[in-house]
Amino acid sequence: MMSKEKVSSSISSSSIVKHTLENTPVCTCGSPASLRTSNTRRNPGRAFFGCSNYNMKGLPHCNFFKWADRGQEREQELHKIETDLLRKKDELQKTQEEFQKTREELRKLEEEVRKTMEEVRHWMEEVRKREGKIVKMELEVRRQRTHLRICWAILILLYLLYVRS
């Protein structure tokens, strides 16, 4: 069994150890848990808390077990989640800003289209007025032609009458 002093002196620079030694959990049997190091293939050198009475001859012990770095893993997970949330919040804000810019551009374009439509309406009104004037002038020209033809026909008839008499 490795004592707290040996563990803390061998890896005292580790923030995990500092944090865990300050926050030593209590076993389910009521005694403070002791910090140990795993020697398994799966977790070599990983610190954990176990019952302080484990492997003590004749003393009853519980099956208390807790990874010492578990809190730090959660902190790292939470930090990662927080970082992701902040990144997504920034992305959302940028997207909102882009949306706002696009909305403003659309409003400007809409105003330009509205002005252009007003100009087109005005021009169309002018075209209708001029078209009306042209139609009136054409009617007047037709009437005058008709009058001229009638006058010519009368003149020709009068000439023919004069020539025969």
Radius of gyration: 51 Å
Q: What is the mean pLDDT? A: 83
Please indicate the percent range of residues in DSSP E strands (runs of 2 or more). 5-15%
Helix content: 55-70%
Termini separation comes to 158 Å
Supply the helix-strand structural class.
mainly alpha
Write down the secondary-structure element order.
Answer: HHEEEH
Number of domains: 2
What are the segments in which pLDDT stays under 50 over at least 5 consecutive residues?
1-13
Account of the 3D structure:
It is built from 3 helices and 3 strands, in the order ααβββα. The protein is rod-shaped. 67% of the residues lie in helices and 7% in strands. The longest helix is centred in the last third of the chain and has 95 residues, at 70-164. A 3-stranded antiparallel β-sheet has the order 1-2-3, covered by helices on one side. The termini are far apart. The protein is mainly alpha-helical and 165 residues long. The chain folds into 2 domains: 4-68, no CATH class; 70-165. This is GRF-type domain-containing protein. Keywords: Coiled coil, Membrane, Metal-binding, Transmembrane, Transmembrane helix, Zinc, Zinc-finger. It holds the Pfam family Zn_ribbon_GRF.
SSE inventory with pairings:
Elements: H1 4-10, H2 15-22, E1 34-37, E2 47-50, E3 65-67, H3 70-164
